[in-house]
Amino acid sequence: MIAFSTRVSYAFRCFFVILSKGEIPQDIVRELIASPSTTLASSPARIATDKVLDDSVDRAVQMLALFQRDGRLVDFLVEDVSPYPDGQLGAAVRSIHDSCRQVLDRYIKLEPVISAEEDQPVSVLPGMDQAAIKLVGNVVGTPPVKGVLRHRGWKVTEVSLPSLPEGSGRKIVAPAEVEIA
Amino acid sequence: MDSEFIVGIDLGTTNSALAHCHVADENAQIAIDNIPQLVNPNEVADRTLLPSFLYVPGELDFPAGSLQLPWDTQPTFVIGELARKRGAENPSRLVASAKSWLSHAAVNRNAAILPWQSPDEITKVSPVDASAQFLRYLRTLWDAQHPGGSTALSRQDVFLTVPASFDEEARELTLRAAEQAGFERLTLLEEPQAAFYAWLQSQGDSWRKRIKVGDLVLVCDIGGGTTDFSLITVTDEGGDLALKRVAVGEHILLGGDNMDLALARLLQQKLEAEGHRIDNYQLQGLWYQCRSAKEYLFEHSKAQKQDVILLGKGRKLVGGTIKSELLRQELDRVLVEGFFPEVASNEMPIRPRRIGFQELGLPYAADAAITKHLARFLAQQLQSSPEAANSRRGRSGIACPTHVLFNGGVMKATALRERVVNVLNRWLTEEGFDELGAAQVLDAPDLEHAVARGAAYYGKARRGHGVRIRSGASRTYYIGIESAMPAVPGMEAPMKALCVVPFGMEEGTEAQIPGREFGLVVGEPAEFRFLSSTIRKQDQVGDLLDNWLGEVEELSPLEVTLNLDGKHGTVMPVRLESRVTEIGTLEVWCVSREGQRWKLELNIREKSDQ
Q1: What is the pTM of this model?
Q2: Continuous segment of H or E residues that includes residue A121
Q3: What is the Cα–Cα distance from B554 to B495, expressed in whole angstroms?
Q4: Domains along chain B?
Q5: Looking at this predicted complex, what is its ipTM?
Q6: Any CB–CB contact under 8 A between A90 and chain B?
Q7: pLDDT the model gives residue B354
Q8: Is the Cβ–Cβ distance between B498 and B513 less than 8 Å?
Q9: Which residues of A75-99 are buried (b: 16+ CB within 10 A; e: fewer)?
Q10: What three-state secondary structure class fits A115?
Q11: Smallest CA–CA distance from B64 into chain A, residue
C-alpha cells in the first residue's frame, strides 16, 4: 500500500479539486486505478460486480440443472436425433415437453408483453420500451403507430428459484449417476 | 388456559394434512395449512399434503448442507416429498406406511424395525418413532409459523384421526407417538366420521334436508394404502336429528398404491413380451406414468387409450425411448373388474392366512376385490349390533344403506364411484329396496383434505358449534378369566371372556363390572388378559363367555401393580371399572373396597402365534 503521507496528500487534493472544479485529479486516477495494489486488493465495488457476475453464471447453470433434473432437457438437446423416425422422436418429445413445462410453471412466471390476440390490430404508443417491442415491416414515422400483432412476446414477472447449492455444486448441471448393486 | 385454535390432523398412510380454525370466532372458516417441506435438495416448497414417508439419509445420499429447513439446518431425517422421491432411488433407507405397521400386532411396534429388513448400518426407527417424527414435523412447522407461546401447537386443542378399524392397541400407540412428539391436548377421531363431518361442514345448515330419520349412510374410504368402511345411522333425539356410528369394518390393507402397481406390472409384462427389459428403476417410472395415464383415462371418458412413455436412460434419451399404451379395456379389466368386480351380496373375500407378503412384511389383503370386502362388511358388521333394529336391513339381513359418502384419493375417479354405486344398487334391489340415485351419493368436496377438515369441524362441534356423531367404543372388549376347571398338564386352562366394555359404550361414561372381585397381591405386578371382538356386539358389561373361538381375538395384556405403603405382600380384593374417555380411549381401573383406584396399562407386545 502507498505511504500514509501520500494518502493524506491525495485525499486533501481530491477533496478540494472535486469541490472547486468537479473533477478528479487525473494523476491520482492513474496512480490508484492502474496500480497493482488496487487490482489485488479489489475495491468493494469490484467485489460486488464480480459476485453478481458469478451469481448470474451460477443461476444460469441452475436453470439448466432444473430443466435437466425434472425434464431431461440437456440430454435431449445434446443427443443427435437425426437417425430416429418421427414417431419415436415425437413420443419422446411429448414426455419432455410435459415435464419441462412443469419446470417452467414452477419456477418462472411468464406473461405476454402484449396481452392481445395474434393477428389483431394493436397500437404502439409513444414512450414504448424498445427492448420490449420490436417493430418489423414498414417501420417509418414516430409513435403512435398502428400495426398487427404477430407475436405476443414474453416477459418474466416472477422468478422463484431454490437456493444455490454449496461450492462446486454450482457447476453441476446433472450429477453422474452410479448404480450400486 | 383455553387454546386459540382448533387443529385437525389427518395422519394418513400415504399423505398427511393439517387444518385449523380459530376458537373465538363461531363462524370461522376452516383453513387447510401449507406444509413446507423439502421437495429437492436445497429446495423447500409449500404443499398442502405431507407425504408420510421418512428417509434415513446416509453420508452418500445428499450433498452437504442441502437438507436445510427454515427451522432446522441439519435434520436427522428427511420427511415428505423428497423422502418419497429419494426413497424410489434407494428403497433400503425409506420408511413408508408407518401407520399400517402401527396396527400390525405380529411385530414389536416399539422396536426399531423400520426400514423393514434393511441393512444393519442404517439407523432404524420403530413404527411409533416414525409416527412421532411426522407429528413432530407438523408441530415444529406450526410453531415456526405461529410464533408466540400461547399459539404453540402443544397448547391447542388437537384432533388426530385414526382409522375406525384401529383397535385399542393401535390407538394407544398412536397416542404414545403423539406424546413423544410433544402433543398435550389431543383427542382421537375416527377417519370415516371425520369424512362425514367434512360433508356436514360443506352443507352448512342444509344437511338436514339431505338426510332424514331412519337413513343409513355408508362411508366408503379408500386411500393410498387402506380401505375403511363405516355405517352411520340418522335417528331422532328429542325432535332433532342425531347421528350415530353403528358399524366399523376391519382394517383392510388395500388401496390406490396396489392398483397403480397392478397397472405398472401389466405394462411391464406387455413391454417384456415385446423384448424390452424393464429394471426396477424403470418400473418406478412406469408406476408414475401409469398413475398419470390412469387419471387421464378416468377424467376423459371418451379416450380409449393413453400413451405411456419411458425415456431412455443416460445419453440415449430418444434412442432408448420405449413407448407403450394403457388401453381403456386394460384399465377396466385390471382396476374396475380386478378391484371392484360385480359380485353378489354373499360373496365373501378369501380370508387372509396371516402370512404377510415376505418382501413387505405387512399383512396385505389376500383378496383384492374391494366389493367383496364391502359385501362382508354389510353382511356381518350390522347383524349382531345393538342398532340392528334401527338400521335398514334387507331380507337376507345385510345392511342396506340409503346414502353413500366416498372418501380417499381413489374415490376421485368417477368410474370407480359409479361402479361401487352400481354394485350397491344391485344388492339393494335384490333386497327389495330402491336404487341409490345421484342425490343419495353425498358429494364430498376436496377428497384429499376432507379428513383434516372434518377433524377441525369436529373440534368445533365439541364446543357446541356444530353437529356431533355419537360413536363410543368401536369393539367389544373383554378380560380373560381362568375357569375353575382342573388343569390338564400340557394344555392351557380354558379361559372365559368377561365383557368390560360393550360395543358402542359412549365417550365420557363409566361402568362397574358387577359380581366379582379379584384378589391382587399388593406390590406385585398383576396381569389380566385382554381381548376384543369386532363381531359380537350384543354383549353387556359383566357377561361371561365360555365359547368365543373365532369371534374374539386376544390383544396384549393389561398390567397393574397395586402400590400401597405398609401392605406389601398382602392380598387386596378389588373390583374392576371401565371407562371410555372423551379423547377416544379406554381405561380399565382396579378399585378397592375403600375406594382407592389404580389404572391398568396396556403392555403392548408382539403376538408370536401369528
Answers
A1: 0.83
A2: strand A121-124
A3: 11
A4: 5-189 (3.30.420.40), 207-254+344-470 (3.30.420.40), 256-339 (3.90.640.10), 476-602 (no CATH)
A5: 0.74
A6: no
A7: 46
A8: yes
A9: bbeebeeeebeeebbebbbebbeee
A10: coil
A11: A166
